[in-house]
Amino acid sequence: MAATAFLAAALFTAYDAYRTFDDQRRHLELIGSALAQEIIELDPQSALTRLDHSAGRFAPIIQASLVSDSTSAASPFGQMLPVGGLGAIKLEPAQNDAAAGVMQRGAGAFAIAALMSFAALRRRPNDDPDPALKQSYRTLAAAIPMGVACWTRTGELIVCNQQYRDSIDMEDREVTYHQAVKRLIAGGYMKLLREGDNGRLLELHREDGSCLLIDERPLGSDGFMTLVSDITEAKKTDTLLHAIREEQRHLARRYHEEKLKAEAASRAKTNFLAHLSHDIRTPLNHIIGFADLMRHETYGALGDKRYLEYVQSIKSSGEHLLASFASILELAELESGQKGLRSDPLLVDDLIEGVAQRFRTQAQRAGVGIVIGAPTQAIVEGDKLGLTRMLGNLVENAIRFTPAGGRITLAAFAAPDGVVLEITDTGIGMSEERLQSLSQPFALGDATFTREGGGPGLGISIARAIAELSGGHLAIDSSPALGTTVAISLPLAAMDGRMAA
């Protein structure tokens, strides 16, 4: 019997350790998922601030931090959850209560096994144990880290430890089992969790808000044992985690609904723009064609020379509108993924040289010089027409906003993991507020500094979309009266990385 009791205690301790640490791991994953949803769309600085604020809700349970390397290792009791480009959230238990609880319950299980062994060895036919056995019970009960009381078959108290006395406010005088139960329940209620041949498990909710777990088990054939443990903090933790799960489900449902709405709105916008573009481009092409015929006086003279100027104005305005609608449709197709980009190996130096050559004449007319940086011999994978359009939009903006006598520099800088293309001008620059507005399409420039009209303000938005579809990123740095620098980071071609021509 002793061997069976100790084997059962060992199995109980092993199972309890597995369940406890598995629950802790799942709880950390759940908390980490909730925190990740709150910060994933934020920039690193805002994410750190939000994480410090949000993690405070779970401060008694975890310590949360943001690490840039998602491969960093957490402790054996911690968790690492990736958060997109921000790195990963590192979660650690604030206190190792789980290990302490396993040790306490394990000690209690082995103490119970010892008590049962003593009971089997020193079993007596009557209900009142001899003094030696009672002293053994008392010694073992004092070593158990939870409330313990041993009773005879008739409910008379054999022995109990101080924790049990404190739980029922017991004085020095003896009490029976039924009196002890009444004191435990006073002002609260008890709920039966499990009952069987090997005892029963009850949960006691007291008037002061505390919660006790009462485990009653047979003590040989002469009596039974009551184990009382305080699970108030565990209940609070379970309540908090339940609230987190509900909030997470609510956020996930809202995110899914908003995502569906956004996708539907994006499809509707693309379809609308496609139909609108067709309905407007067709008559515009007619207007431009007829204006060209009239400008060349194909079917006879127009008469007054001013008519030629009017016709030229009609043609120019139609072409401007046609280009604007083409830009709108192109941006919609890029954002919706309907316009695919090729992936061919391209020499960065040739790409920059081609764009500079294309805009050199326009820059000379505006009194602006174009300078090309040192060659890098780097090769990227991308769509040649798309990347040329991206650089062309940025160079055209630089020409428009750089006064005569200024300079535009096109340069590339290669590194082992990618290439950075930079377009720098000495133009009028932009304020911080203006920079923030550039993240929104259709943000028009200041008309007082443009040379050829504002346009729909989509050049940078199209360039940004092409950069991101090419696996890169676009960033802008500008200061009023000092100029603007636009940097585009692109990955190197996978086959060669960086190579010489």
Automatic annotation (TrEMBL):
GO terms for molecular function: ATP binding. Keywords: ATP-binding, Kinase, Nucleotide-binding, Phosphoprotein, Transferase. It is an enzyme of class 2 (transferase). It comes from the Bacteria. It comes from Devosia albogilva. This is histidine kinase. InterPro entries: HATPase_C_sf, HATPase_dom, His_kinase_dom, HisK_dim/P_dom, HisK_dim/P_sf, Sig_transdc_His_kin-like_C. Residues 275-494 form the Histidine kinase domain. It holds the Pfam family HisKA. PROSITE patterns: HIS_KIN. It catalyses: ATP + protein L-histidine = ADP + protein N-phospho-L-histidine. Transmembrane segments: none annotated. Its EC number is 2.7.13.3.
